[in-house]
Design goal:
CATH class of the largest domain in chain A: Alpha Beta
Strand order of the largest sheet of chain A: 7-4-6-5-9-8
CATH architecture of the largest domain in chain A: 3-Layer(aba) Sandwich
Shape of chain A: elongated
Number of domains of chain A: 4
Number of strands of chain A: 25
Strand content of chain A: 25-35%
Largest sheet of chain A: 6 strands, mixed
Distance between the termini of chain A: 37 Å
Number of helices of chain A: 8
Helix content of chain A: 10-25%
CATH superfamily of the largest domain in chain A: MoaB/Mog-like domain
Oligomer: homodimer
Amino acid sequence: MPEALEILKSHTRPVTESFIVPVWESPDHVLAKDVHAPFDWPPRHKSAYDGYAVRSSDTPGKLKLVGEAVIGTSDVGIKIGEGEAVYVTTGAYLPDGADAVVPEEKVVVEDGYIIVKDKIEPHQYIDPRGSITRKGQLLAKRGQLLTVYDVVGLLEVAVTEVEVYRKVRVAIISTGNELIVPSDPISTQMKVYKGKVVATTGGLLEAFIYEYLPWVEIVDSVLLPDNKEAVAWYIKHLLDNVDVVLLTGGTGPSNIDLFYQLKDDIGGELLFRGLFVKGGRPTSAFIVGNKPIIGLSGYPLSALHGFIRLVYPYLRYLGNVEKGAPPLYIVDAVLTDSIKAGRPRPIKVRVEYRDGVYYATPLNKVYQLSSANVGLVLANGIAFTGAENLKPGDKIPVLLYRDPIGRKYPV
Amino acid sequence: MPEALEILKSHTRPVTESFIVPVWESPDHVLAKDVHAPFDWPPRHKSAYDGYAVRSSDTPGKLKLVGEAVIGTSDVGIKIGEGEAVYVTTGAYLPDGADAVVPEEKVVVEDGYIIVKDKIEPHQYIDPRGSITRKGQLLAKRGQLLTVYDVVGLLEVAVTEVEVYRKVRVAIISTGNELIVPSDPISTQMKVYKGKVVATTGGLLEAFIYEYLPWVEIVDSVLLPDNKEAVAWYIKHLLDNVDVVLLTGGTGPSNIDLFYQLKDDIGGELLFRGLFVKGGRPTSAFIVGNKPIIGLSGYPLSALHGFIRLVYPYLRYLGNVEKGAPPLYIVDAVLTDSIKAGRPRPIKVRVEYRDGVYYATPLNKVYQLSSANVGLVLANGIAFTGAENLKPGDKIPVLLYRDPIGRKYPV
């Protein structure tokens, strides 16, 4: 796999087109430029409490109330002199002259005056100017995927625009003559009973991309008959508008045929084929110009397996994602049963959380078949095997696709 | 918190309305009825290989090719008798009479005949009828949140409809006179510089709900001025159409005022107030009829904290979610620094993954301020403290909101 990834990378380049967006429209995009603080923050002393803005040198003492400044006030317009105080709310900018706040509960109010018993130190109970960020300070680096958490943080310090890369554009083509798009429940049930298969592999990849690869835009997702000319024609017309084509099903020898068809039509080159071969369903890649067409299994879980191992890191590369991506929910679980060596393959497991440890129990053998995805309804995790025999007690990475048994929320 | 949760539960009941949907429209809904397998699956013997369907009793031997059956064929329409074979593809139903398959690579084809050298056992290289599920077998229980993984699994065994609950309906009201909705980047920057605050708390809660509570529908999310009459009026008119109102900001004494305003207008009862008080920003609840209005902090992270600890489990309860929810990405991380005891509060941390262990390092103190959400841009996790002092080496639950440093993907 690492080699396949390197081959794909060496034939293609990450996205370079970028544009400027308001911060509130930036989530799910990757920063194309570092972000620096535009101002010292806060730009003025800010109250950290509801209370009274004062000159600390006047405390303790009896101070005259000369006004108020509430949070969100655009212009304070008040200045305090010796022996004066101004009522402020949490988050409000202090009036000129004030260098500290006395919290409400620490004063006695009397006839337009406040009595402060304690000595208040300079900058006490306030966020002083520039105490949170300094103008020019690096806040986020090129390559960070932006999320709603960044929106919250950046807007607070008055960063309102950022430069981001355009999204990576992917098309998904599902092929297979046995596949159908569901219509109504009853006729769909009849068709499935008679041997048709509802096309779900493309939908599973789409859902995974929505969840974990928000920097990727799915520009098309179609079901085509398993006909080389039709698929080749479709791909040829897609290529201008996408960075990568994912092709599920029709792998194996006919996949190679398809790739030769493409070669005849528009040129191109086979990069590799037959990774993760299990039941004759390889992960392959062909390249036309600088646009790879990656062939995945037609089986939903096998396709997802190839996607996670190869396509996921490749799409991170294409999208310039250095950090900040939604974390894949992979736990290192303790196996409770053995798994025989073989080609790397996904194993449907039931994950339980007990005393701080995740335990993974493979479902019965019958549910491990590529044709027994009903196991996905019963399981909550997918374990990724390597090439070795595994025994109870060994640790294995597991993708949790729903909540583990026994993990209590809230924290 | 557990008490507050129990109070909310004791005043309200989970959603009972349910309806039937096609399985492909079921993701993000919770099962209202158990799902059983409608048929033995597969309903006929199914080939597990590309090869030849045979009567195992005829092997080894020379068999006459009498037809083919490919995957997806609605009607096989072929029957094999003694000494006959039919070409089949993986996943195809076997013709009547056949009870096993000989994989392609194990035969020699010759003039309309195949020569099988090995003895093939009954059911070898096939998925026998009923081997994956038996008619009536329980596949998923009431209370399971359905996902795309269930769609894949259920459609495969011809489950095409399910009964699900309607979603839980939530409205989010953000209040605060200092809050603004952003317009264009430049004037927004100027307003923030002058002391206004862009309203992001509601958006953060919305994003969290979209990610982790897909069984919840956000029917409204508005910003209102911090005016008791306006907020009370709005809530009063919302109540018929929602199960829960979340109110961010305007907490503290004015929240109570609001609640009394509601009491005057439409009746109701204060359930509790002042949970997680930190800087005077309580989590409170009021109930009108059986509709709770839950007050959260106006500070984004404090609101999220209250949401995760109280509202998350409550919305699971209202939505009948027993299992299958997107797992909250909470890791038990080893602290690298100390955290002082105090009210439970969220701590912005940087999480690193090293040799199978997550380490959490709190950001500098200044970034822990409620008014320093810029820390969210620098951090990747939110640690949840309890009431005790914590020292380096202690374990602490951390919500990872983006990928941990040093965790390599793919698996």
